[in-house]
Every structure is written in structure tokens, then in C-alpha cells.
Amino acid sequence: MAKFDKKNYLDIEKIIRDGERVLYKENINEEYSHDELGNAHSAPDIVVKALTTEEVSSIARYAYENEIPLTVRGSGTGLVGACVPVCGGIVLDVSQMNKILELDEENLTITVEPGVLLMELAQFVTEHDLFYPPDPGEKTATIGGNISTNAGGMRAVKYGVTRDYVRHLEVVLPDGRIVNFGGKIVKNSSGYALKDLMVGSEGTLGIITKATLKLLPLPKKTVSLLIPFKNISKAIGTVPKIIKAKCIPTAVEFMQKEVIEDAESYLGSKFPDSTSDAYLLLKFDGNSKEEIENYYDDTAKICLENGAIDIFISDTDERDETIWKARGAFLEAIKNSTTDMDEVDVVVPRSSVNEMVEFSHALQKQVGARIKCFGHAGDGNLHIYVLKDDLGEREWVEKLNSAMNEMYKKAKELNGEVSGEHGIGFAKKAYLARSLDSANIELMRGIKKVFDPKNILNPNKLF
């Protein structure tokens, strides 16, 4: 790939015609060199803040013709370095492409630009008595970023993940061509599913400039259950029985006392109960209290029969906010409790969640570093964090690599995958290579070459 120079900068300024949206050298904010977790650092040569599909197309065409690396960025809330420009070149910031373009209540769809924030979308559709189910923990993430990583979140157990709600994508290819995949149609058997291929591709195949998303009617009633258990084994062991009983929870989260205490310290407020070692947190939704009462009554009975200490019912907005605000703060709370950390985002079959959690607990002694975890017991996605604390840099790297290798090895033994929702990016690509056979990697490389023969779009990611 070509080295970026001042001529390239002047050429790009002519394309954009707005110097305030073209950042060069000392004008580039340091935040563009990393994402939320910050374990991968690399500065871009230039940052371009795009406002239109046409600008994105022009920049992509220029990068393609001059063989300059091009990395797309939204809010930068990722955790695997997917938006970090590890080869330098151009960072294309699409966060200002943040318009809600159309709400189609007849077809139950909404069309947005990629920079719309998840929390903005959720609030907008709620005001129209509609519901966008995907619910990743980071509400300031952009929709484009959610689509690029196929984000999941807490409601995946009932409603599925981002891919299940993407109907149409407008995409700029690496050479600048603008294409459309999918539409407002509900069914489609017309050739390869290129739209679905874009979802989860982490900005390596094309640049999303518009998305049409499926909506549902807004549930009228929600109820949460906070259920303490004596230990994490009993808590997680109850989840398959809840699922088998067809109680249809919207979310099934597991958490332990030490993480709750981190959240209490971080938020400066008390959790409704933190006396037990382990908890399940469940949510149910529906159109009436009667509709969901049977579900959560049956769930409560199952939990009590399988070792639950008590059942706390949260049926008011105030109680719900207290509980779910604490749950939403777990990542930041753990970060705040240590000097540095890294995350494992494995997903395993639901029946293997407890074994994976117990393994991570035992691994602390083996590697000599603190390890904390929480996650989505209902869909098998665990967030496991290795903490640096006061370890020296060399010792930290050795212990972190050892812990990571052992956890990904265990996940593979349990028929799991490297990432459930955060993606591979730059940080996890070595583990992906070990978890997949050569045929899988070869096919992915072939797809990348078809879309991006010059390898300019978010290079050195995934594999």
C-alpha cells in the first residue's frame, strides 16, 4: 500500500471542500488511534468526517485508486480494535451521518444513516409506540457499528441479534461504487445473501451508508426478576430448565457479588440486594400484566425448586432502572477497579455456560491474575475479564496471553466460538485463526479478495 503524503491531504481537501472536516497531523485527536478498550493503538495519517454517501464514495474511490488504507469509524466504542487504523492511512468518521431518514409504519421499518446512536433510535421508535429489539450494552454505539459487529445484547435470548433486524443496506464498495443489498421485503430467495454477509464483516468488505431496520410493536408491560442463589453453579444450572419450560424471558443475565460490588462503588449507589454470591436477572415483556404473569410465576417456581434463596420482583420503572443501570455499568465498573484489562467475549452452548464460568474461576490461580465475568446466560455469551492490577508490563503480557490461550482453548472444547457479539477486529484475530479450520479461513480470504482486491478497506483485521 502507498505511503500517505501531503499531496494526498491536499487532494482530499479538494474532495471534501470543508477544512473543518479534514483533520491532518497535529489536528488529529488522539482518540482516533484507539477504541474503547484501548489495547490496540495506531494513529491515522488523516481523518475525514463524511456527511453524505457521495462523499464516502469519493473518498473510497480516491483511496482505492491511490492504494491508501481506509478504516471506517463510528463512536469508537468497540473492544477489539476493529476501528483502529493499524496500517495508518485514512480514517473515515461517519458519526456525523446521523439522520433518521424514514419511519415506515406500514412496513414496520426505519431507515437511518450509520451514525445514528442506538439510544437515539430506541427513544425515537418508542415515541411512536414501536420497538427495536437489539439491545447491546453500549447505548452510545452507532447503528453502523452495531451492524458491522452483528451486536447482540441482553434481549438476544428472545428476539435475536442485529442481523435478524437488518432488511436493507446501502453500501459503498472499496472502489467507490454504491450498491444496495436487500430491501423492505420480508422474504428474499434471490441469489446470495450479500446483505447478511455485510452484517458482522467489521468494515472489511464495504462501508455502510444507510440501513433499513425491522421494527416490532412496543410491548406494553415489562417485569424483572432479581433472583439470588448460594453459588454461581446453582444459578447458571437453572437457566436451561427455564428455557426448556418455554417461559420466554426477554433477557437472562448472570452476575456475581464481586461484580455487583464494583458497580455499587462505581455508581455510588446500592444494588437492591448484594448479600448472595450469585444472581440471575431476568426480564419479561408483553402487552399486559396478565400475559406475562404466568411466565414469571413459572420461572420463580423453577428457580425456587433449584436452589434460589428468594425472588425479588421489580415491576416499577424506578426499581427497574436501579437494577438495569447497575447491570449496564458492569464493564465500566470493572475497568475502574483495575489499572488495565482485556476481555474474552466467548459464546458456548447454553448447557456449557456453567462449565466455562467455573473454568475461568479456576484459571485465576493457574495464571496468577484476577479474572471476573458476567454475561448472557440465556444465549451462552460470556464476558470474561483478565485484570492487570499492579502487575508489571512484561508479567502482565505473559499472564494475559496465558489466560487468553487457555480460555479460547476451553471454549473450543465446549463447541463454542471466539466472539458472541464484540467481533474479532485486530485483537482477537490470532484466536480466530486457531479456532477455525483452514477451509473456513480460505473462504473468508476469498470473500475479502472479491470485495476488496487491493486490500485497502480496514486491512489487517479478522485474519
UniProtKB/TrEMBL annotation:
PROSITE patterns: FAD_PCMH
Taxonomic lineage: Bacteria, Bacillati, Bacillota, Clostridia, Eubacteriales
Protein name: FAD-binding protein
Signal peptide interval: none
Swiss-Prot/TrEMBL cofactor(s): FAD
UniProt organism field: Qingrenia yutianensis
Gene Ontology MF terms: FAD binding; oxidoreductase activity
Superkingdom assignment: Bacteria
Key words, A-Z: FAD, Flavoprotein, Oxidoreductase
The FAD-binding PCMH-type domain, residue ranges: 40-218
Keyword Oxidoreductase: yes
The keyword Endoplasmic reticulum belongs to this UniProt entry's keyword annotation: no
